[in-house]
Sequence to fold (102 residues):
Amino acid sequence: MSSALVQAGFHVLGDADSAGLGLRVVEVPAGVVVQWTVSDGFTALAREQAIRAPGGDSMGAMVQAAVSGLLVQLGHTVAQTPDGVDLIVLADEATAPNSGHT
Fold:
């Protein structure tokens, strides 16, 4: 799955990138969680932009939609985590042969 995200142009963080910016793919019992991490400066800028243009989609929502759309096109079952912040790819899809999961 990580390789598909990289091929689509997303920056996927490795295990050593503890404070990196980009997508983090983490295995969990239910499947694989895809998290988007950003800097404090980016978060502040996004918050400022949301104030200027209320009702618009946040950058996080746009990234989440793009990642979700890509993974669904590749045949994965994708849902939001209960907190609505991250995406989860269900285990039966994340571990299927030829899924590109790394």
